[in-house]
TrEMBL record:
This is Transglutaminase family protein. Pfam families: Transglut_core. It comes from the Bacteria. Residues 30-136 form the Transglutaminase-like domain. PANTHER family: BLR5614 PROTEIN-RELATED, CONSERVED INTEGRAL MEMBRANE PROTEIN. Signal peptide: none annotated. InterPro entries: Papain-like_cys_pep_sf, Transglutaminase-like.
């Protein structure tokens, strides 16, 4: 799938915002720790991906009711849904000058019910000239997302028969409809009721 930038300025994908707060000391410290031993941008990006995927549990999998949305907050609480984890990975990538944005899928339950927008990350390694999507959601039985820039290894492949969609746009900041749901939820069950069904 051909990914397109929401903002034409690549600098937007390195910028700080209220969610992707990669100048926060906690993000800076985590990025510095991950960079030790990562001698290329690729090695760092993979280390950051695996860190977010494997050490920050998805709150649905762990049963954690807390809602997080800022990268620094996710790192402190060590919990978040896909959107929070994607924001965190984008922040860790930007902290090391790797352009990163947010992209999305519309997914549904196994029977096609309960559609919901799922958050991913797109990154653009220096010199690559192209965006690649990765999914730091977190693996579990039946989900095996991997860091791969050539062939996508996302948590889920969209199913046309259930009107699932891969959105091709790479956003520099979380869309307001996503941020509104994250910021306004008192707990994860309320968040689940308010997440958008589509972008």
């Amino acid at each position: 799938m051909e990914l397109t930038q929401h903002s034409p300025d690549i600098g937007a994908y390195l910028a700080v915002d209220e969610a992707i707060d990669h100048e926060h000391p906690r993000v800076v410290e985590t990025a510095a720790h991950l960079a030790r031993g990562a001698d290329t941008a690729y090695a760092y990006a993979r280390a950051a991906f695996e860190f977010v995927r494997d050490t920050i549990p998805h709150s649905v999998d762990s049963g954690d009711p807390r809602v997080t949305w800022r990268a620094s907050e996710v790192l402190a609480a060590r919990t978040g849904i896909c959107h929070a984890k994607s924001i965190t990975l984008a922040a860790l990538l930007r902290a090391r000058s790797i352009p990163a944005g947010l992209c999305y899928q519309r997914l549904a339950a196994d029977d096609g019910a309960n559609p919901m927008v799922h958050g991913l990350v797109a990154l653009r390694l220096p010199g690559s000239g192209r965006w690649a999507r990765v999914d730091p959601r977190g693996n579990k039985p039946g989900v095996d997302a991997r860091f791969s820039l050539e062939e996508e290894r996302l948590a889920w492949v969209t199913r046309e028969e259930f009107n699932e969609v891969d959105y091709p746009v790479v956003y520099a900041a979380p869309p307001e409809v996503i941020l509104h749901a994250l910021r306004g939820a008192r707990d994860r069950s309320e968040l689940w009721r308010n997440l958008p069904e589509h972008l």
